[in-house]
Amino acid sequence: MNKPKPDDRSDNESKIKRAMSNTQSQMQAAKEVISTTSNPKTKADLQAKNERREHALEGMEIEMKQEAEYNGTHY
Fold first, then answer.
1. In which domain, by residue range, is 54 found?
2. Which of 11, 15, 47, 74 has the fewest CB atoms within 10 Å, i.e. the most exposed one?
3. Spatial contact of 64 and 13, defined as CB atoms under 8 Å apart
4. Is 2 contained in some domain?
5. Which of 62, 60, 51 is nearest to 27 (CA)?
6. Euclidean distance between CA atoms 60 and 33, whole angstroms
7. pTM listed for this prediction
């Protein structure tokens, strides 16, 4: 029988930071396209994506705080 792997949260903070950075970069790239495109559907689609990304960032910030508390660091 296989034993479950122990909970290894040692690198979660760095993974969340990387995900947040990538999400912010994608948001900025989308904003640039929104400002340059004349296609209303593209603008609407990208604005909707950025709204979802904003919600995702909020969730990542909460996770980051939880991981910082767990690891005894500050965020």
1. 14-71
2. 74
3. yes
4. no
5. 51
6. 25
7. 0.82
| Pairwise CA distance, residues 62 & 57, whole Å | 9
| Count: domains in the chain | 1
Give domain status of residue 43, yes or no. yes
Residue 41 in any domain: the answer is yes
Sign for the CA dihedral angle at 50, 56, 62, 65 comes to negative
In a domain, 9, yes or no: no
DSSP 23-69: HHHHHHHHHHHHHH---HHHHHHHHHHHHHHHHHHHHHHHHHHHHHH
Q: Which helix (DSSP H) or strand (DSSP E) does residue 23 occupy?
A: helix 12-36
CB 65 within 8 A of CB 17: no
